[in-house]
Amino acid sequence: DLHSFPTRRSSDLWQINGKPRSHLQIKPGTPSAALEQAALADKKIQAQIAGKTTVKIIVIPDKLVNLVVK
User: Fold this and answer.
1) By C-alpha distance, which of 33, 41, 37, 40 is closest to 61?
2) Which of 22, 15, 16 is nearest to 44 (CA)?
3) Which of 16, 63, 65, 70 has the largest count of CB atoms under 10 Å?
4) Contact residues for 21 (Cβ-Cβ < 8 A; gap 6+)
């Protein structure tokens, strides 16, 4: 029975300037825009980027979101 198997999940890693800062369990296939919004809404990420300028946001679906900040 296919309904008895658990839903697949993957863990997305949030990075700032290439350094791991947080992570979140997400559904595979989550759109890049939703991953970007989730990363920016994360309290750990908000604390790290407070007062800094976001230069670039790199999203690799089902793997990571990297924020480049100055």
Assistant:
1) 33
2) 22
3) 65
4) 14, 15, 44, 45, 48
Amino acid code (one letter) for 14: W
pLDDT level of residue 6 (50, 70, 90 thresholds): low
Q: Residue 64: which residues within 8 A CB-CB, separation 6 or more?
A: 12, 13, 14, 15, 58
CB atoms within 10 A of CB 30: 15
Under DSSP, the state recorded for 2 is: G
Q: Give the other-Cβ count within 10 Å of 28's Cβ.
A: 11
